[in-house]
Amino acid sequence: MTVYPAPRVIPPDLYGKHDHDPTTKVIDTVAALRVRWSTLINRRPIRTRADDARFPVIVTDRVLVAQDQAVVDLGLRAPDGAALPRWAPGAHIDIELPSGRLRQYSLCGDPAETEEYRIAVRRIPQGSGGSIEVHDELPVGSEVMIRGPRNAFPFAPPGRGSSAKRLHFVAGGIGITPILAMARAADRLGIDWTLVYCGRSRETLPFLDQLAELRGHVLVRTDDEHGTPRATDLLDGADHDTAIYCCGPAPMTSALVAAVRTMPGIEFHSERFSPAPVVDGTAFEVELTSTGEVIAVGADQTMLDALLAVRPDQPYSCRQGFCRTCVVRVTDGTPDHRDGALTPAEHAAGVTLACVSRCAGKRLVLDL
Ligand code: FES
């Protein structure tokens, strides 16, 4: 049987409440020991979190997985065939594309397959160019550097970190990628699950064949057949003992967040395709203590984006204020904390998240 490592941090519910389940810690410890034992027995290299910050992989296969031919599914393996760092459903990797662009893609393969990662990418002609590059410039045999895996959308199945009894997934288009790995895990664990899978038309939806092989109930709901879905359509079958996992466009996720606020106690976890726009922003400055450099942050710009313009290596991941990757230390000035991840004590200690937080005055001084 596949052992899925439980997340170290059980995702909070919609109301920010954390459910601390001791069983999860035991499972995580056992899974970690299992990997170490496997290393000793097999004498094969297994990269760990300590040394996986950045490493090369080879594109070993490419498959078009939607009828409209616009979604490519890539297999990635280590050049020496070594086992890759383990991951759990919801995880993503950062890929350094040939142009230098850094893009994040959810892992959509099987966590039990230790020597291969799989990602799926929809070609977005009007996008920023990353998806076009993946489609056109990563043939089989090409080498790319990746970082991770990291998990900003952790999955805590019922009985393994969640008190829910069943799972309801909602996926919009290419948002199926993390959900596919979760559905596969739920299937293996024998958990009751349902999925509402939306898109413009069936031709645009990847992985319909793989979903058909799973035992959960999958409802495909396309705009051309059923019209634009309402939140109630997407939540059909979810009730108080259901944990909901949603990945898709921001309007869909926002509609579900609003709807589940009227369903007290329900677990709701989501990942958006893109960060929410800056709301009520005013311009300010950031000063770096190390160099004295002063960086202007526009009213509709995030502090992270302004930092990345001069410090391209500044770490980040979700860009939505929940993964804590972009944490920075403020030594002077008053931050306007807009995250949901740091505690009041951490805010008081002078840390903030650059992707969402701003300045309550004119200038923040940062010790990066
Ligand atoms: S990048 Fe994830 S919290 Fe800022």
Structure description:
This protein folds into three domains: 102 residues, Translation factors (Elongation Factor Tu (Ef-tu), domain 3, Beta Barrel); 107 residues, Rossmann fold (3-Layer(aba) Sandwich); 84 residues, Beta-grasp domain (Ubiquitin-like (UB roll), Roll), CATH 3.10.20.30. It is built from nine helices and 18 strands. It has 368 residues and is of the alpha/beta class. The strands form four sheets. A six-stranded antiparallel sheet has the order 4-3-6-1-2-5, with helices on one face. It has a five-stranded parallel sheet with strand order 9-8-7-10-11, sandwiched between helices. A five-stranded mixed sheet has the order 13-12-18-14-16. Helices cover 22% and strands 28% of the residues. The longest helix has 21 residues. 37% of the residues are buried. The radius of gyration is 21 Å and the shape is globular. FE2/S2 (inorganic) cluster binds next to loops. This is Ferredoxin-NADP reductase. InterPro entries: 2Fe-2S_ferredoxin-like_sf, 2Fe-2S_ferredoxin-type, Beta-grasp_dom_sf, Cbr1-like_FAD-bd_dom, FAD-bd_FR_type, FNR_nucleotide-bd, MRET, Riboflavin_synthase-like_b-brl. One of its GO terms (molecular function) is metal ion binding. Keywords: 2Fe-2S, Flavoprotein, Iron, Iron-sulfur, Metal-binding, Oxidoreductase.
